[in-house]
Amino acid sequence: MIDCTCTIEYVGYFPNRPTIARSKMPTEDPTDEEWEDFLNKPEEALLKCFPSQLQATTVIAVLDVLSNHSPDEEYVGTNIEPFWKDEPVINAAFEVFSGKLKELEGIIDARNADCNLKNRNGAGVMPYELLKPFSEPGITGKGVPYSISI
After folding, report:
1. Are 134 and 105 in contact (CB under 8 A)?
2. Cα–Cα distance measured from residue 88 to residue 90, given in angstroms and rounded to the nearest whole number
3. Which stretches of 43-97 are assigned E, i.e. beta strand?
4. C-alpha 60: how far from chain center
5. Which terminus has fewer CB within 10 Å in the chain: N or C?
6. Taking Cα atoms as reference points, which of 140, 106, 105 lies closest to residue 126?
7. pTM attached to this predicted model
8. Is residue 23 helix, strand or coil?
9. Along the 150 residues of the chain, how does pLDDT read in single tens digits?
10. d(CA 120, CA 105)
């Protein structure tokens, strides 16, 4: 996955992670006129920096395509290789590993639901899902696939 904090929900609001700045913020060596405009209306200076609607839409479309989990994607700990299933020691180790992954998913869900963890729960706070072991198809921001996934 992309350094993601980078799930599509987060990146979909481009001020969180703009991919391009059309102009610089007037914080270093501004002209007197730039500085005056910045002090009077800082939000306009910020809006001038943001990508155009077309640029932002293009980036979101590309991220959408690259971030989708396919319906047949396989995740670590879900299925043991058929060749190893007949080996009792390996099969037992796989079952322990898979169980620990399910336990980890439960821990992540419990922490996301804990109202005392302000970084995990509350208004405007996205639940942590990046290393939840399993995922359903689509853009989820979770799952640890066997293959490389952006």
Report:
1. yes
2. 6
3. none
4. 13
5. C
6. 140
7. 0.55
8. coil
9. 333 344 556 666 666 666 777 777 777 788 898 888 889 998 888 888 888 888 888 888 887 787 777 777 788 888 888 888 889 999 999 999 999 999 999 998 899 888 888 777 777 777 888 778 877 776 677 777 777 655
10. 15
